[in-house]
Amino acid sequence: MKYLSKELLTTLDAVEGLCLSLYMTTHRTHPDNQQDPIRFKNKVKELEASLLQHYPVVAVNELLQPFHRLAADFKFWEHTLEGLAVLGAGEVFQVFTLPVQVPDLAIAANSFHTKPLRKYLQSVDRFQVLGLSLHHFNLYEGNRHLIDEIELPDAFPNTIKEVLGDELTEEHLTVASYGGSGGNKGNMVHGHGSRKDELDKDAERFFRAVAKLVDEQFSKPSGLPLILAALPEHHHLFQSVSKNRLLVARGVTVNPSSVTDRELLIRTWEVMESEYRKKIEGLREEYSLAASKRLGTDQLEAVAKAAAEGRVSSLLIEAGRLIPGKLNVADGTIKKEMLENPEVDDLLDDLSVLAESTGAHVVVIPAEDMPTQTGLAATFRY
């Protein structure tokens, strides 16, 4: 499994040839997750039935071999989340476990079906959380429904010793307490004078290094808002040393290790909800204004042509809507067909890829927040 990023999605969009895409809702806990591998095998059978309409048995078996291996991996099925995406084509085989439900789909086409992944990456309710203390930090990713800790690579530094290394003060004083869920429990340092000053310098160096590390390794690649979760006395210092443009001004005054994931989600979503509503209203107003000036449309054929010409500035796609067909990326012509055909994908998915390739801002949003009823809304550059 790999961490899903915009760069990885771009790589998958560029894969050519026969591509198999399988999506399904999964479960975190027993006994609900017992049925997941069985349902996965049934989706693989759907792929097999579609492929056998056009390809010989030997070729189909070879394509499906990594899917069968995953189905038999009992340890994998013990650690699933809410959604699963499995993409396979030749030497490419990628597995993503997602903290959101995805529609059950099994599609064989000449490109990967990536709209559910795109929706997850482009959803305007996603955010990241930096849980910070004087001695270590953790990262979380969430949306309005769920929050999960990001599993950092083994060699990734996330303690003050690992981050500062030789810069760490040699006579680092004992910290009696650095937890707590509020401002009453401070960091009680045994020592005074210059040694206390050295600890303060360590804290500033640590916070500055963490701010840079998180900005470069997580915020910039993901483009997600970052919420600081830390004891009240740490917020001003971190905000003052951070240059992260995605850092939200309002933070959460709690050490994440002292609360449950549910409580952390409630607190962080309180911060994010107003930001989310502002973004949705902004997208809707942008489209309405463009449409009134004849620089926007919700008509599939017109959007496809504009995308091929590189004229699409922004594109809103309705989550969960499928329009089967083939898109000619050269001239934007479309042909609607049945999705059961192994060379047919979702036109909305293909349009998203084409529009993004020419620099358009593509966002997948819930049906209830769409400004149109056709499944898409595009604004044009000219």
What's the layout of helices and strands?
Layout: H1 6-13, E1 19-25, H2 36-51, H3 57-71, H4 74-77, E2 83-89, E3 92-98, E4 105-109, H5 115-122, E5 127-132, E6 137-142, E7 147-149, H6 160-164, H7 194-222, E8 226-229, H8 232-241, H9 261-292, E9 296-297, H10 300-308, E10 312-318, E11 324-327, E12 334-335, E13 345-346, H11 347-357, E14 361-365, E15 376-380
Parallel strand pairs: 5-8, 10-14
Antiparallel strand pairs: 1-2, 1-4, 2-3, 5-6, 6-7, 9-15, 10-15, 11-12, 11-13
Helix pairs in contact: 2-3
User: Regarding CATH, which class of the largest domain?
Assistant: Alpha Beta
The major pleated sheet works out as: 4 strands, antiparallel
How many strand elements?
15
Order of secondary-structure elements: HEHHHEEEHEEEHHEHHEHEEEEHEE
Which secondary-structure class do the elements indicate? alpha+beta
Radius of gyration: 24 Å
Shape: globular
Question: Count of helices?
Answer: 11
What CATH architecture label of the largest domain applies?
A: 2-Layer Sandwich
Low-confidence stretches: 172-192
> Helix amount, in percent?
25-40%
Measure the end-to-end span: 41 Å
What count of domains describes the coordinates? Answer: 3
- Name the strands of the widest sheet in spatial order: 3-2-1-4
Question: How much of the sequence is in beta strands?
Answer: 15-25%
Instruction: Round the mean pLDDT to the nearest integer and report it.
Output: 88
Say what the CATH topology of the largest domain is: Nucleotidyltransferase, domain 5
